[in-house]
Amino acid sequence: MKHAPQQFGMIPLFLVLTIRTKSKLQSTEKMHVISYRSLRKFYEQHADCRDTLDNWYKVATKADWSNLIEVQSILPKAEAVGNFTVFNIKGNKYRLIVSINYEKQLIYIKYVLTHADYDKEGWKNDPYF
Question: Roughly what angle, to the nearest 10 degrees, separates helices 13-23 and 50-62?
């Protein structure tokens, strides 16, 4: 019995990982995400986004991005907002806001918000913004 491919947004996860692996074969560096606990805490309150956040985490930890263009080659809806990168989660129902240090291959999860909370723009008071 065949299983449908796991989806990340509109991109099948196996395709995302295949493209990423083939385009960066020489690099051994992978992104380190700090911290998964933030994602888990959010999806414990918003269970409908668990799979999508888990898929984002899997993609991000296997990535070796060096700039936003490379992020967008895999996750086209990612956008720079101030010093942060913002990802639409679950069809724009939620927003994942991160800080990416490409040189050190680190992703800091800053905020996971409902779209309504994102629109309040309180996160823009972050000193790093």
Answer: 10
Confirm whether pTM is higher than 0.70: yes
Could you write out the three-class secondary structure of 107-124?
EEEEEEEEHHHHHCCHHH
CA proximity to 96, closest of 69, 45, 56, 51: 56
Give CA–CA dist 128/84, Å, rounded: 8
**Please, what sign has the CA dihedral across residues 84, 111, 53, 120?**
negative
Given strand 79-81, what is the order of strands in its sheet?
A: 32-34, 106-114, 94-101, 84-89, 79-81
**Contact indicator for 53, 88 with CB cutoff of 8 Å:** no
H-helix or E-strand containing 23?
Answer: helix 13-23
pLDDT in tens, 67-96: 999 999 999 999 999 999 999 999 999 999
